[in-house]
Design goal:
Blueprint: H1 4-19, H2 28-38, H3 58-70, H4 80-85, H5 92-97, H6 100-113, E1 116-118, E2 127-129, E3 135-137
Antiparallel strand pairs: 1-2, 2-3
Length: 138
C-alpha cells in the first residue's frame, strides 16, 4: 500500500480530474472542503474516509456535495412561497421596500441562487457579489 501522503496527493488529482472543464460549477473553497472532509485519515492512520466507502464515484459525490452546500446541508429549504414572492435578481428598490425580516428572507433567497453577501465590519458598508461577479454595495 502506498504511503498516506502519496494517496492524498492522488486523491486531490482525482478530484481535479473529475471536475475537469466544469470547474466553474464549484468554488475553490467547496473543493477544498470536499478534499479536507474525504481525505481525513482514520485513527489507525491507514485509510482516508473515502477509501472506507463501499462504493465511490467522485463526480457524483461532488455533485451531491454541491447540492448539500446550497441547502446548507439540509438546514435550509427554500419554500415555494419564497420563490414566488421574491425576484431572482438583486434590486436596490426591493431592498428599500422590504421590512427588516423580509430583507433577511430576500437575502437568503438570493444566496440560494448563488449570490454572495459580505456584511460590513466596524461600520463599513456591506456588499454582495452577483451571479456575474459584480460587486454591489448594500
Amino acid at each position: 500500500m502506498k504511503a498516506i501522503e502519496i494517496r492524498q496527493k492522488d486523491f486531490k488529482n482525482l478530484i481535479w480530474d473529475s471536475v475537469g472543464r466544469t470547474c466553474e460549477k464549484f468554488t475553490k473553497e467547496m473543493l477544498i472542503d470536499f478534499f479536507d472532509h474525504w481525505s481525513t485519515v482514520g485513527d489507525r492512520g491507514w485509510k482516508m474516509a473515502f477509501e472506507k466507502e463501499k462504493t465511490w464515484n467522485t463526480k457524483r459525490r461532488l455533485a451531491r456535495w454541491k447540492k448539500n452546500a446550497e441547502t446548507r446541508f439540509g438546514r435550509f429549504k427554500p419554500s415555494k412561497d419564497m420563490k414566488t414572492r421574491f425576484p431572482n435578481y438583486f434590486s436596490y428598490k426591493n431592498m428599500r421596500e422590504y421590512t427588516p425580516s423580509e430583507w433577511v428572507e430576500y437575502r437568503t433567497h438570493l444566496q440560494t441562487l448563488g449570490y454572495v453577501f459580505n456584511a460590513g465590519k466596524n461600520g463599513q458598508q456591506g456588499y454582495l457579489i452577483d451571479l456575474e461577479g459584480q460587486r454591489k454595495w448594500i
